[in-house]
Specification:
By secondary structure, the protein is α+β, with helices and mostly antiparallel strands. Helix content is 33%, strand content 27%. It contains 10 helices and 10 strands. The protein is globular. GO terms for molecular function: 4-(cytidine 5'-diphospho)-2-C-methyl-D-erythritol kinase activity; ATP binding.
């Protein structure tokens, strides 16, 4: 056995704005999105082993148990195997590893859980295996795992375009205090895209360069999530959740990704924590988390 036990965070990916700007001939939709990453997230642990192993823990671990029984659909195992195969072509060792996924985020909830887990697996295993690969080699691995994985691998405030692979880091974005909420009901992303009336919407305007929280909130308020309307039609709880967030004083409320997670932006950590407590009292059977994004200053 080789390697030193280590862990890697898989932060929630928050689409602060998401415009659908087109569709490619192969069916992939073109997006323009402003993305931040939250302190709330999953956690991957890596430890030496005589043979590969994979385990689950955390609040939402049981929901993944069936998937974890095999390779199909499990992005953590796919990331492990793709990285190992690539390292083999570069003459670098990748011995057996025991991986534990602590699943703290709701499954299939529009905040990049699976993609964030895959990206964290790549980052964590690179360190665990002492591997060295350049960005030109790692980038295609991330994209092969999914359109959201490259931005999750970056893990910083960014603007993503194309199908998600065209990334520009946003160095002026401030930190935002958020409450994430999810009604813990599934929603089909393909169904949402099928319901989109317009798929060639205008792109997002140029983000602020000032770093002012007020400027950023005003900018984000002028944007939208083009998937939110169709998602609300499929799952009315999204609208109810948004109303609840507004009722607790959120300055900006929006759905993230294809849902059903919504977020509210609050004045500070104290008001976000207070809102989370109130929301938990209102719907103790739903998911709520007060958190903070990792702004660049």
């Amino acid at each position: 056995m080789t390697g030193i036990a280590t862990s890697e965070a898989a932060p929630a990916k928050i689409n602060l704005a998401l415009h659908v700007t087109g569709q490619r001939a192969d069916g992939y939709h073109l997006l323009d999105s402003i993305v931040a990453f939250a302190g709330e997230g999953d956690l991957l642990r890596f430890s030496p082993a005589d043979e590969d192993a994979f385990g689950l823990s955390g609040r939402f671990g049981p929901q993944l148990s069936a998937e974890a029984a095999g390779q199909d659909g499990n992005l953590v195992l796919k990331a492990r195997d793709l990285l190992r195969a690539t390292l083999a072509t570069h003459g670098q060792p990748a011995p057996p590893v025991a991986i534990e996924l602590e699943k703290n985020l709701p499954v299939a909830s529009g905040i990049g859980g699976g993609s964030a887990d895959a990206a964290a697996t790549l980052r964590g295993l690179m360190r665990f295996w002492g591997a060295t690969l350049n960005a030109d080699t790692l980038g295609p691995i991330a994209l092969k795992l999914g359109a959201d994985v490259p931005m999750c691998f970056e893990g910083r405030p960014l603007r993503a375009r194309g199908i998600g692979e065209q990334i520009d880091v946003l160095r002026s974005m401030p930190r935002f205090h958020l409450v994430l909420g999810n009604p813990l009901k599934g929603i089909s992303t393909p169904d949402i895209f099928r319901r989109l009336a317009t798929k060639d919407n205008a792109p997002i305007g140029e983000p602020p360069t000032s770093g002012s929280t007020e400027d950023w909130i005003a900018f984000l308020a002028a944007q939208r999530n083009d998937l939110e309307g169709p998602a609300r039609a499929l799952l009315p709880e999204i609208g109810a959740l948004a109303d609840m967030l507004r009722s607790t004083g959120a300055r900006l409320v929006r759905m993230s990704g294809s849902g059903a997670t919504c977020f509210g932006v609050y004045e500070n950590r104290k008001t976000a924590a207070s809102a989370q407590a109130e929301l938990c009292r209102m719907r103790p059977d739903w998911y709520f988390a007060a958190t903070e994004t990792n702004g660049t200053h």
